Request: fold
Amino acid sequence: MSNLLTPKNRFMFSNRITHLFKIDFPIIQAGMIWASGWRLVSAVSNAGGLGIIGAGSMYPDVLREHIQKCKAATNKPFGVNLPLLYPDIDKHVQILIEEGVKIVFTSAGNPKTWTGILKEKGIAVVHVVSSSKFAIKAEAAGCDAVVAEGFEAGGHNGREETTTLVLIPAVANAVKIPVIAAGGIATGKQMLAAMVLGAEGVQMGSRFVASDEASSHLNFKNAVKCSGGRYTAFFKTTNSGSPFEE
Amino acid sequence: MSNLLTPKNRFMFSNRITHLFKIDFPIIQAGMIWASGWRLVSAVSNAGGLGIIGAGSMYPDVLREHIQKCKAATNKPFGVNLPLLYPDIDKHVQILIEEGVKIVFTSAGNPKTWTGILKEKGIAVVHVVSSSKFAIKAEAAGCDAVVAEGFEAGGHNGREETTTLVLIPAVANAVKIPVIAAGGIATGKQMLAAMVLGAEGVQMGSRFVASDEASSHLNFKNAVKCSGGRYTAFFKTTNSGSPFEE
Reply:
């Protein structure tokens, strides 16, 4: 990817999101449980995007291991996604601070609870929202940016099912902090469309989940690669064991 | 709107959709049952877009009346939306042909059945689809264009719930005929995003349904104007009487 970084291209992609994270491209790899460990995260960050460790599927000691391995594998910025509803949240936050993580994406919870504590440690905090109302709350809580996650996105989604095409302009109008678009984005055209709608960056999951560096199972990667538009599914899972055999 | 039509702007909007319909802007007002009669349709067409009579809520004699009144109210092209599943479909088609309608949007049925018959009469036929698979069938049936209608759109939607952001590039890749995007589009930014994704025109409903010329009930117009992102609803209705008191 580095040959894309002519001075002109670097300027073209320069905005509040690239400045906030100190990255070359406003492309963020979504934190995905069971899929985004240190290998994927460091690969994305080394390529000029922002890799994000998905802490949602990691016990505290596993999270610490992935952060340490990621720091060894890249000198570039990377982040950790922290679902706030998880029982180990206190331990997770302690580890993030101890390990000097600089960027945290929080989701599935109230941004008021942790944003101030993280910001005091100099950590950039981005909260994932599914509506303008929650975006305004995240901004009021002191977040540096929001991920506006449309109905198309995976993970813990909003109940209102507002799609990316409708959500992004609404959120961009509602807050002054920069907006990262998520949901239904996998190509350059979709990225440009998101930015036309008011986003300054994109967060993508499925685009990365089938890559060599992702820790998803090979059968899952193949299923993603072979699927068409009609194969989106909603899952209820019970977690057992860890796929992070690294 | 006519003051927007400098030679430069006219060139900017010129594409296969403006050529197909002989219109100034690739903006199409969706045929909406109970809402898009001759007043709205002629107003949109007179402004340089394409107005479409929603035949779905009209008995054959009512449809004929609206076509005749529309022809009296505008010299510009307009169309009729024809849901193919309606019982009066034969009579509707006969009226379209007798009244010299030049543009027909078909939906909710197999495009094979009627496209050939309409095309023989010199009528441009556009079919509404919700997937690449149906777009390919519409192209094979001889349609001049397709409306790719995302999950966000009203009316008889696809079961796969593919959103506009995902559907438009998929359909634009699957067929050679031009694609009109529908669903979740109400602003210039959303129109530009749709065109970035590969559409050559947009079809909008809610954008027009609260206008003075729409025959929707005033309470409905006010509800649309005051609603936020979370007020989309799915309706099951039983029709009684006609709102077309014109």
Notes: Chain B touches chain A through 31 residues (CB under 8 Å).
